[in-house]
Specification:
By secondary structure, this protein is mostly helical. The chain is about 55% helix and about 5% strand. A two-stranded antiparallel ribbon has the order 1-2. A hairpin with a 6-residue loop joins strand 1 (about 60-65) and strand 2 (about 70-75). The longest helix has 17 residues, at about 75-95.
Length: about 160
């Protein structure tokens, strides 16, 4: 199945989060209660509408074999994060990951465990990256800016 990559509203995301926390799935009624407990004063029909939208977008599926339909997420939190970051990278960074990654690292604090995990990931990536794809050898690095043909950046004004 192709991963859903359609925009998701904050309200839809709140419903999806509840489904991630309910691995066996949830009915409209149980979701309505969970969302109410989480501070949402939504009508039962609002929850139904949000579920319908999520199903149309491919983020959830409905099991209609029982009287009360059971809804389950079809995408993991990690896959949704990845899809949303890919979309953000395409829209804001012209498909380049480094400006997005560098901005995130510079603006946030990380625990010692997070830093160790990042180091390990970087080590693994270094061993998997072929030398022929090392663009830093082919051209000098430049600050992010508008791209020209050929993938090089134009200087900012």
């Amino acid at each position: 199945m192709v991963e859903p990559n359609k925009p998701i509203s904050d309200a839809e995301l709140d419903v999806l989060k509840q489904l991630w926390d309910s691995p066996d799935g949830a009915t409209v009624r149980s979701l309505h209660e969970l969302l109410r407990d989480a501070g949402h004063d939504w009508a039962y029909t609002t929850v139904q509408t949000l579920l319908q939208r999520l199903e149309e977008k491919g983020y959830i599926r409905k099991d209609s074999s029982e009287r009360a339909h059971v809804f389950k997420a079809t995408i993991s939190r990690e896959d949704l994060v990845g899809n949303q970051l890919d979309d953000l990278m395409e829209r804001l960074c012209e498909g380049e990951a480094s400006p997005l990654l560098l901005s995130l690292v510079q603006r946030r604090s990380f625990s010692t465990a997070d830093i160790s995990a990042l180091r390990e990931l970087l080590k693994q990536m270094e061993h998997q990256t072929p030398d022929t794809d090392d663009r830093s050898k082919a051209q000098p690095s430049s600050p992010p800016g508008r791209k020209r043909r050929g993938g090089r950046h134009e200087p900012r004004d």
